[in-house]
Amino acid sequence: MSGGDAELSELRAGVSCALLLERDGYSLDRADSTRRCLKYRRGAGEVLIVNHDGQGWWDPMSQAKGDVFTLAQRLDPGLNFGQVRKLLRSMVGMSPSYPVAERARTREEPVVPPAERWAGRRRLCQGSASWAYLTVTRALPPGILQAADLFDAVREGPRGSAWFAHRDHGGRSPASRCAARTGAGSPRTPTRPCSACPAARARPRDVTP
Fold first, then answer.
1. pLDDT tens-place string over residues 19-34
2. Does the domain spanning 3-89 belong to CATH 3.30.750.24?
3. Rounded distance, CA 5 to CA 11, Å?
4. What's the predicted TM-score (pTM) here?
5. Less packed terminus of the chain by CB within 10 Å, N or C?
6. Please, where in the chain does CATH 3.90.580.10 lie?
7. Element containing residue 199 per DSSP (H, E)
8. Hey, which residues does 163 pair with through a beta bridge?
9. Are 65 and 75 in contact (CB under 8 A)?
């Protein structure tokens, strides 16, 4: 093997493609990487994969692939082969730092206070899907539900479910409990009227399904 060929082999083995990518502003997508394939990102949509223990790379969006030499010319097309060799010589022995790429965060929905969510639900109405669920499926006496509605302790939830208020001693409603059929879109929980409703306190046995 000639001296030139030996140097090329040394440069391929001594400079990781990951190091070149990091030098050019790429960061590691740790969540989508494996031990054998490191996924690097830059900006929106720029992705390159490093494989073969850092000695190879490929573009998942095209057929492009190669070694550290072809990667250097891909990142800077203006470099000729001699300039690439000079660049790689200065990087022999250096290790990648594997900076982690920050993914764009999904926009979080604003937190709606329980009182506002409660106010946005419909009052319990005879003949509604929520009424049928509570009286038929859960076997709650209509009188108990009418009393709970009188004290605004129950509201109709989505898809035939029902919301029951849980109020503190000041009459505020810091939370509510949802009762629904399994598969109705809300978690199934034990159904009970709010303790702020006098009718519920007077006849607790009537609310047992």
1. 999 999 999 999 889 9
2. no
3. 10
4. 0.48
5. N
6. 3-89
7. helix 198-202
8. 155, 178
9. no
